[in-house]
Amino acid sequence: MSDTITYQYAAPSALKHSPSADELFLAKYSEIQKGTSPCFFWGKLTDPYTVARCLLTLSKVVQSSFSLSPFEMAMLKDPIVTAGNEKIRFEGFSHCAGVYARVDVLGDGHDGEFLENGTTNVDFNQPMLSALSAVRRNENVLLSIGQKEVALHKDGGKVTERKVPLPVKWIKGLTSVQMFLAESEKVHSFNRLQALQLFKTIPTGKPKTDYYLITRGGKPTFSPVKSSDAITVGGVHRLKLIEPLLSIADELRVFSHNNMQSTTWQIYIGAVRFSLSLSRDAWRGFSGEGAGLEALIEDVPDSWVEQVDNYSYANQEFNPTMMAINEDIDIKNVTNLTGRLSAIGLLGYDLDENGFFYRRLPFKLSRIMSLNPRLKDAEKLLQEGKVTIVQKTADKVEAQVEGTGVKHTVILSGDKEQCTCTWFSKNQGERGICKHILAVKKLLAN
After folding, report:
1. Is residue 344 situated within a structural domain?
2. Which parts of 203-297 fold into alpha helices (H)?
């Protein structure tokens, strides 16, 4: 027997040069091997009634649509199920991808065994919905989650839902949702009575204008009139999806994106948490927001992304700032790396934990380009030499980008970005940067 241990490294160490500093990334030996167990979790739900009510609400979210045709609705599935780090997460989007919902069954919400960390995607059909509807309080209900199925066991019977393909639109939506969540902060906390009273002020029908969450006389209300401390809620009628849960809620917390591009409503019921995130407007889907494009500007080696994927799998949950400190990596590089994992659906964001959680989906970096057409178009503009820097100073950059029969002017000045294209004129940067600004930024960064 040899006394020598042989280490094999997936990639060599690398020295990265930049104008401000040089960074040395040391290759690490890792014994992390993603397992192949067919079962991720098996155990008893300690509050099956609450979990069932939340899953039925999640199903209503994924069956709803606020901007799609019936044909488009028939093409989407539900939900994504992740088991890991003592939590079970069920996620889904409305058909139009403008509403994101998640059910988190926390540590005290189950009594079982996590055999392996993993993610699957199933379709809750009528037998499963009927079984969930029939769950009673204090009933003995077992849940099993595996690579190819999710099953509910009760009364000596079993209802199984098989794995189905994960819609591409959902992967794109997951990218923007976690970016918006990471930039959101808690602004309100309501008890059950306050939450019920607040939801009574939601207008009937489908209002075409914004409503605002404000406080009058110490009581929260939705109003069409904006005040100085108001929270903008586009498509407020979408909140009715979670109204049935309020009668059993312990608390409702409201989180707002720093630029009012989304709001998130989290309901706490014992060891179960239900989250609902709304896009800025009812007609806007998270899948088209382009919130993750900024993180994809600077090129990084694929091997680095793979190493962070292994890190995420091993830890399951992590705070990006603490990761940068503990692993001695520049926070900008952490943002770029996690942005790439998010762009292929591998990372979600937990507001209460203030950090990412990992979804075990296929690791396909090729999806970054296919799921981000603006990034692909920007790369093409650079490859064809259609981006020219006209002026560059310490605080301002002016560039010209050739379009079809026209030249667009891009100006970067501090935090302000402008482009003469139609996309920028229409959206003013609210739905991610246009391909022309993206191309200029990539040219400057790389």
Report:
1. yes
2. none
Q: How far apart are CA 114 and CA 89, in angstroms?
A: 13
Give per-residue pLDDT as tens, 274-308. Answer: 999 999 888 888 876 666 787 788 888 888 899 99
Give me 444's structure tokens: 């400057």
At 301-360, the pLDDT tens digits run: 888 899 999 999 999 999 999 999 988 888 888 988 998 898 888 999 999 999 999 999
Whether residue 21 is found in the same domain as residue 89: no
Backbone φ and ψ of 21, nearest 5°: -165, 165
Where among 291, 313, 336 does a domain terminate?
A: 291
Domain that holds residue 305: 14-35+292-369
Distance CA 273, CA 337 (A): 29
Q: 13 in helix, strand or coil?
A: coil
Within 8 A by CB and 6+ apart from 316, the residues are 84, 85, 117, 357, 358
Q: Are residues 269 and 392 in the same domain?
A: no
Average predicted confidence (pLDDT) for the chain: 86
Same domain, residue pair 183 and 108: yes
Q: Do 333 and 216 belong together in one domain?
A: no
Residue 31 in this model has a pLDDT that exceeds 70: no
Contact 57, 274 (CB under 8 A): yes
**Which element (helix H / strand E) includes 221?**
strand 219-223
Q: Grade residue 165 by pLDDT with cuts at 50, 70 and 90.
A: confident
Count the residues in the chain: 446
Tokens representing 430 are 């609210």
Let me know whether 364 and 395 are in one domain. Answer: no
The number of domains in the chain is 3
